[in-house]
Design brief:
The structure is a homodimer. By secondary structure, chain A is an alpha/beta fold. In chain A, 41% of the residues lie in helices and 14% in strands. In chain A, helix 1 crosses helix 2 (23-30), helix 8 packs across helix 9 (199-214) and helix 10 (232-245) crosses helix 11.
DNA sequence: GAGGCTCGTGCAAACGATTGCGCAACTCTT
DNA sequence: AAGAGTTGCGCAATCGTTTGCACGAGCCTC
């Protein structure tokens, strides 16, 4: 790279030369924690010339010396998945005012990629990591935490570890939704579950089974169909399996909005209307969902708040000497009632 | 922070001690560019023990020495805006395989925030910056480029500067869409323009005016309404202004999908159907758009490709000694025909 | 008035990697 | 076989900041 015009940055040394004090004095004058040990006059003189010369600290140098880079890593599966940008902004809302920068990496749920990216973060000396990747257990992450890197997981917990987790109350969400369908008169309710290796997939499925049993609902084998990914085409595939099973369900509780959208598309293709013939519910309340017809009844998760809470916890771990952090922080969820649920038809609703 | 279990990382010195060579030899053995000056035996021995000990280079140290951090900054307005995640993934698709990490910052189009964040990037010694923030001219950014930091802008150009830009062929997109509406029989076509301070807003508006004149269309003052932001509620506000102007338009060409969605909502509220009463078109073809009814006819922009191209250019600027980069790289756009356009009604279409 | 404070500042050694330079130990040439 | 050239590696300075320690000056105390 030919940097012809590259004028080099102002350093402590430059300020020292300019003010006639030693570089260490400049350093102390610019650090709020140490400037008490200097005379107010020197502090002010240094501060003023630093300002005048446009001094910007070199974080590489200070990080090298102190092992603190004011940089954190965000490990997420895929930023194009609409729930993550909100989480990211929530995280940023607390980190950025404190001066932290975030390196965001996308794992695509590929553990090989995740390993490489975790290395990439470590090489850059991140002060902490917020981990939102979905796979359930990952030795690399546990190892990183064991190395002493402050870490928080969001939307999932790592089993057999004491890494703090921030999660939404998935179980309560599923239970609320099932109760809601029950109250509308539904008795044969299917579940399109998420991937088993994602912790949300597993948690929601288990909550579904438990809530269904608590309500005394019929729950044949065919009632639960698992998807491989949280995507529309998986929703379609799973809904087809469900339809072809022959079980006369009247509603589908989906583990995720995108699965629900896929399911509704399949129903429509088979000549079934949602909600007239089959009620369908989602989970997450992703952005723009309220513009898609039928407007999906779903469980709203506070993505931004989840991100915010996880960042607050990470900051505590990074800065407090003996933080007492709960193993799990669970945030409430809300049922948002829209148009995709109606009472079941009295007559047989299976058209074809 | 109390790092009790923090076992410190392996350094070149550790490997040197282990293999019995000097630390500089280790450094050379591990660098592909310099290992030619060593015997194959030493290189292999160093490489093997580095591998065995799990050596990870300290990028802070190497960055301090070399002024290259293998980190780039991505300046975007808001990651929750659906077009940006795709751009980010496009950028990553070229940067990540090369070993670069990305620090992503959201400016919210606030220049005060942008200044702070640009400083944050500089302090961390990023090797380059991809700048996708929307405001048209920003002295801070020009100053940064002048300082010699490699930079590329996406979706916009900086006036009076030679910073390379990657843009979509907005003008052609507008022209294609207007021609399409014309071919469907529309003659009185309104334009919901984007914010004037965004370069896309300005470019699309200008293209609209030119294309309309070329087609000999009637173009009264009221035909163009400007929005303050690319958001649904601005689309609603602008559409209301348009309706209230009394001009008997038969179609609205919107500068952006979200504006179009807002406009359609207002039409619906006024008892007008899209496309039966008024045709509406979007721009961008954002994710999930095809699920929203009526399915919006729009111009597809290759977000991923835009990101990819900008990253490729940035890499060239960062690594080549005398790169010849075109001032502007323009990527083609495509008209995607869906359901929000129909021929105009012969009769008066103004219901209320 | 001498010894022991505190207070403000300078000194120099880190942090880990890179790299120009120098110096042995070779190989080749004549 | 001696000089010249080459090859392979070590030495030490450097990047910019931080921080334990030392040191001189002033002050107080007995």
């Amino acid at each position: 790279m030919v940097q012809t015009g590259m004028k080099k940055a102002i350093t402590l040394r430059d300020i020292a030369r300019e003010t006639g004090v030693h570089v260490s004095t400049v350093s102390r004058a610019l650090d709020a924690r140490t400037q008490a040990s200097l005379t107010a006059e020197v502090v002010e003189r240094v501060r003023a010339t630093a300002e005048r010369m446009g001094y910007r600290p070199n974080r590489l140098a200070s990080g090298l010396r102190t092992n603190r880079t004011m940089t954190v890593g965000l490990v997420i599966p895929d930023i194009t998945n609409a729930v993550f940008p909100l989480i990211v902004r929530g995280i940023e809302s607390v980190l950025e005012p404190l001066g932290y920068a975030s390196i965001i990496v996308n794992t695509d749920n590929l553990s090989e990629r995740e390993h490489r990216l975790v290395d990439l973060l470590q090489e850059r000396g991140v002060d902490g990591v917020i981990h939102a990747a979905a796979t359930r257990n990952d030795p690399k992450i546990v190892e990183m935490a064991a190395r002493g890197i402050p870490m928080v997981t969001v939307n999932r917990s790592i089993e057999h570890s004491d890494i703090p987790a921030v999660v939404s109350d998935d179980a309560r969400g599923v239970q609320m939704m099932l109760q809601y369908l029950y109250d509308q008169g539904h008795r044969r309710i299917a579940h399109l579950s998420g991937p088993a290796q994602s912790s949300t997939g597993q948690a929601r499925r288990q909550a579904f089974v438990e809530a269904a049993q608590a309500l005394g609902l019929e729950l044949p084998q065919a009632a639960i169909v698992e998807s491989a990914r949280y995507e529309e085409d998986e929703g379609r595939r799973a809904a087809l399996r469900l339809l072809d099973s022959g079980w006369p369900f009247t509603a589908i509780l989906c583990a995720n909005d995108r699965l629900a959208l896929g399911a509704i598309a399949v129903l429509r293709a088979r000549g079934l209307d949602c909600p007239a013939d089959v009620s369908v519910t989602g989970f997450n309340d992703m952005p723009l969902l309220d513009l898609i017809l039928p407007r999906l009844t779903t469980i709203r998760i506070q993505q931004f708040e989840v991100g915010k809470a996880s960042a607050e916890i990470l900051v505590r771990i990074m800065t407090e000497t003996t933080p007492r952090i709960p193993r799990e922080t669970v945030l409430p969820v809300f049922l948002v009632e829209r148009d995709s649920v109606a009472p079941p038809r009295a007559a047989s609703r299976r058209a074809c």
